[in-house]
Design brief:
Radius of gyration: 19 Å
Shape: elongated
Helix content: 40-55%
Oligomer: single chain
Number of strands: 0
């Protein structure tokens, strides 16, 4: 069995590949799909490569930050766009209802994506903990 085929050993992927896999709700490390059993549940460790989606017990903070960040960026773009497109007669009531709805619904939709994206970010951050690069 080659080193790449050993369980728990997967060849390192580029950052764009890791993030793309995460956005497709696949394991960011190996690309295996169907990780989620329920929308709001933490995925079980990947059966193919063993990636743990809650490695230190505090991963919830990371995916919540990703979720909140994306939600607030969308809110800012939508609010600014709504104001600029309707200026000077801005429909403040409609814009407020839209903003509240956006801030209530988007985080719920993003939960599984936030979890897998955070796992990809975690993998990228922990690459720095690997062996030092050879020097010439």
């Amino acid at each position: 069995m080659s080193r790449q085929e050993e369980p728990g050993r997967v060849r390192s992927a580029k950052p764009v590949v890791l993030l793309w896999r995460a956005l497709l709700l696949r394991c960011p490390r190996c690309g295996r799909g169907k990780l989620l059993e329920r929308w709001f549940a933490t995925p079980a460790p990947c059966p193919r490569c063993g990636l743990d989606f809650n490695p230190d017990g505090d991963a919830a903070v990371g995916w919540i930050i990703v979720n909140l960040g994306v939600t607030e960026i969308l809110f800012f773009v939508a609010a600014l766009g709504g104001i600029l497109l309707t200026w000077p007669d801005v429909p403040w009531t409609g814009l407020t209802v839209f903003a509240v709805t956006l801030n209530a619904v988007v985080p719920l939709v993003l939960v599984p994506f936030s979890r897998t994206v955070w796992a990809a970010v975690w993998l990228l951050l922990h690459r720095m903990d690997g062996p030092p690069l050879p020097t010439r």
